[in-house]
Design a protein that fits this description.
The protein has three helices and no strands. With about 90 residues, the chain is an all-alpha fold. The longest helix is centred in the middle third of the chain and has 38 residues.
Length: about 90
């Protein structure tokens, strides 16, 4: 019986960590969307360059488009988070 009591965690341990992850979740999602937009834009530009033999121009254009779109979505999410009631 004494061994069982020693192995049990006191109530409330780990709740702080879970709460921190819940609070950080929207910010992590926003950063993944930024990275994904840049990655997909770059990948699409690279693929189109290979298909159309246009050199690095579509790669650069796709990367810039991905950066622009990614930052737009990133800041849109952050602005919506700041308007949310706490």
């Amino acid at each position: 019986m004494a061994g069982k009591e020693q192995n049990e965690r006191p109530e409330g341990v780990g709740e702080g960590i879970a709460s921190s992850y819940r609070k950080a979740g929207p910010y992590i999602d926003a950063s993944w969307q930024l990275a994904g937009a840049v990655g997909l834009g770059t990948l699409a530009g690279w693929w189109l360059d290979k298909k159309l033999s246009t050199g690095p121009w579509l790669l650069v254009s796709g990367a810039l488009l991905g950066i622009g779109l990614g930052f737009y979505m990133f800041f849109k999410i952050l602005m919506n988070l700041s308007k949310r009631p706490k």
